[in-house]
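User: Reviewer 2 asked us to show a designed sequence for the structure in our supplementary figure. I'm pasting the structure tokens here. Could you produce the per-position amino acids so we can include them in the response letter?
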């Protein structure tokens, strides 16, 4: 026997095909509370989409430690070889809307939520090791350039390249984005990175700086632009479908997590500022150290409840993992959780997909959509004399020295060309040819030559051949100040 259809309050519904009316022609009666409830709920079925990373796919899985890293961090979920922790991952494109195509040239979000016994730990990164900017104050402006023109409502190459040409720190990421890696073949065939520098602290209170690298065990595969465009027209949800089908067939994708470890004192002497997210650390200087395996083995039961309502923030830490002075990270510590409070609600972290497996004890009360008992009748302030939850000093973050005058200050290092040039020179001739072709195709719609020439100058500073080839492709000459 099938279950009875009910209202959201559990009352049985007698007729779900016809609304209550005054006779067969109506009008409709306002007393049809089932109709009103259905229409009212339907009007509210779409929460505001994410400002960035709106289009995404997700999956459940587990993380298993394969190497002892306890000398570097006291994080419980990394404490012993063989330990497994449940996790959820959300992959995404950055700039497009919720209904945009999967196979566009764009960075991919790579956001992992670990449900640890000490609380949720979120690692919210991308499929690239660097980013376009290195200070959060520039983030709203950068994202505006990736969105639509306020008058035409069309994508605006003029804004994109104007901003990049005026922000030379973007050159490294632009080179990656315009390379073969700019369009992954599937979500399973790309690496993931924490991108930022973080701090690991062990049980003795000793710290190190750390960077995360998820290496795909499926191998890296990318799409040629013409193939990607064809797929975008025929199946705009190609990556979403591929991930779901692979897991559904038991072909569970996996990644090996490695870290780079830098001693705390090296930050003052390394040739790059280790907190500048537009730069990488040489793996010759700080080799990769294996940590464990991430395996995705279960699809979501409901896309909205899990993939759309999952909220991840780089500010969700656990003991043994802390923030660094990375200026971009510092801004994200606030911005991400603030976006979730606006988009999903003040109690977004109490939803099933976000709720920690660890017991939650705090004095936060009320707000929209509180799904639990709201603390019941327990004490609701601190400090108190009624045995309420108390702070645990042993879990406090470790101190690090800061100095300098308060003011709007940039990084001390402004070499934005060496690493981009090194990347260009590492490419094969075929890879360079495709890189230049992709850049030329992307820059041709730019209407002003001064913007093109300013960007060409950056390419030339990274490598003279790089800039010259882009200039030739655009029918321009390298600015005389560079040549």
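Assistant: Here is a per-position design you can include in the supplement:
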């Amino acid at each position: 026997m099938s279950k009875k259809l009910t209202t959201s309050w559990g009352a049985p519904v007698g007729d779900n095909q016809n609304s209550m009316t005054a006779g067969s022609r109506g009008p409709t009666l306002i007393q049809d509370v089932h109709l009103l409830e259905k229409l009212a709920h339907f009007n509210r079925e779409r929460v505001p989409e994410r400002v960035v990373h709106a289009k995404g796919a997700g999956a459940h899985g587990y993380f298993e430690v394969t190497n002892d890293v306890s000398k570097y961090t006291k994080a419980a979920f990394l404490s012993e070889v063989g330990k497994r922790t449940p996790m959820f991952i959300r992959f995404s494109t950055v700039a497009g809307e919720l209904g945009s195509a999967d196979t566009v040239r764009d960075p991919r979000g790579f956001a992992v939520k670990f449900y640890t016994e000490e609380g949720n730990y979120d690692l919210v990164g991308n499929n690239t090791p660097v980013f376009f900017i290195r200070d959060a104050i520039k983030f709203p402006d950068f994202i505006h350039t990736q969105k639509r023109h306020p008058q035409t409502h069309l994508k605006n190459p003029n804004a994109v390249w104007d901003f990049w040409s005026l922000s030379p720190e973007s050159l490294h990421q632009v080179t990656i984005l315009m390379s073969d890696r700019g369009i992954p073949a599937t979500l399973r065939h790309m690496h993931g990175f924490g991108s930022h520098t973080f701090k690991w602290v062990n049980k003795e209170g000793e710290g190190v700086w750390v960077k995360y690298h998820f290496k795909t065990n499926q191998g890296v595969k990318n799409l040629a632009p013409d193939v990607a465009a064809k797929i975008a027209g025929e199946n705009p949800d190609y990556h979403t479908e591929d991930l779901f089908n692979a897991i559904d067939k038991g072909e569970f994708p996996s990644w090996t997590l490695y870290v780079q470890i830098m001693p705390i004192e090296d930050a003052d002497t390394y040739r790059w500022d280790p907190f500048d997210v537009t730069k990488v650390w040489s793996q010759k200087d700080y080799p990769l150290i294996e940590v464990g395996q991430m395996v995705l083995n279960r699809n979501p039961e409901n896309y909205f409840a899990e993939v759309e309502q999952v909220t991840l923030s780089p500010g969700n830490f656990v003991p043994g993992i802390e923030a660094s002075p990375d200026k971009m990270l510092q801004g994200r510590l606030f911005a991400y959780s603030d976006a979730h409070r606006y988009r999903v609600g003040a109690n977004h972290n109490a939803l099933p997909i976000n709720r920690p497996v660890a017991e939650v004890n705090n004095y936060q009360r009320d707000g929209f959509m509180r799904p639990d008992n709201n603390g019941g009748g327990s004490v609701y302030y601190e400090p108190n004399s009624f045995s309420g939850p108390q702070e645990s000093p042993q879990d406090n973050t470790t101190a690090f020295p800061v100095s300098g005058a308060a003011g709007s200050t940039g990084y001390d290092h402004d070499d934005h060309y060496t690493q981009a040039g090194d990347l260009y020179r590492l490419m094969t001739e075929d890879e360079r040819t495709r890189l230049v072709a992709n850049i030329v195709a992307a820059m041709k719609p730019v209407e002003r030559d001064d913007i093109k020439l300013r960007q060409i100058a950056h390419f030339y500073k990274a490598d003279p051949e790089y800039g010259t080839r882009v200039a030739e492709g655009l029918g321009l000459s390298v600015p005389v100040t560079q040549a």
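For the response letter, you might also mention the following. The chain has twelve helices and ten strands. Residues 56-133+182-356 form a domain with the Catalase HpII,  Chain A, domain 1 fold (CATH 2.40.180.10).
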